[in-house]
Every structure is written in C-alpha cells, then in structure tokens.
Design goal:
26% strand, 158 residues, 2 domains, 7 strands, Helix Hairpins, alpha/beta, Chitinase A, domain 3, two-stranded parallel sheet
Amino acid sequence: MNKEPMTIRGHELLQQELKKLKSNDRPAVIRAIAEARAHGDLKENAEYHAAKEQQGFIEGRIKELEGKLSHVQVIDVTEIDAGGKVIFGSTVILLDDDTEQEITYKIVGQDEANIKTGLISYTSPIARALISKSEGDAVEFNAPDGEKSYEVIAVSYD
C-alpha cells in the first residue's frame, strides 16, 4: 500500500485524537456500560444501548486512526530545499485575478484538508496546479465553478 503524505502538524493531531480515544473516551464508555448494566434489564435499557453504540463508534475510530497512522509518510517541509517552489506542506499566498483578493492556502494531506481554514489537499485541482510554481507565476486551473486564474504572490515553508 502506498504511503500517504502528511504534515508534522497533521500527524500530531491524529496521534492526539488516538491518545484521547484510548485513554479518556474508551474507559469512560466502559464505565457507562457497567453502570447501565447495573440498572437491570438490558432489553429496555436505553442508557446501555446508547453506551454500546458509542463504544462501537469509539472502537471504529480507533481502528481507522491506527490504520491511517500506519500508512503515512510524515514530511517536514522545513528540511526540504525547494528553491522557492510550491511543494507539499508549503503555504502559498495567491492573488485572485478576477476579484483582486489575496487568498492563503497550505498544501496538506487528504486527512488534514479543511478549506475553511485554508488547508487544501495535495490532490485538489488547485494544489495540483500550484505544485512547482514560484513567486510571480500565473496559475490557471479548472475549479468546480469554472476556470480560475491566480498569481503566486509568496511561498513559505513553515
């Protein structure tokens, strides 16, 4: 199976979530199940069924996170000499040619992407168009709402 690229920050966040699930959430749901069992008849015990459902969700998420973490390649962009070019993990400031507004994006792994916070997946159309561009380059790509055109204003590696 191919390794999935991920930033250091994204890797840390997944590890933190996994640790929280294993050390806090899992024990809490086990206590809730034990408490609900103590109430008697399990057939009509809504607390018991809700706790069991929550336990299933937690265990599923733990397996999902362990699977993701076992197949990632953590990339530290600060240790790569990219020569001013846009690469995975770089932060790019763009100027929208249509609106004259500046937009900032950071190119990250698929599991880290969140367009609302400016984190875009390296597989997105805009990220694919940006890769290997430098300051001053024009970038054109097909977005879901039509052709877009940007100019690369700055590239940083933080």
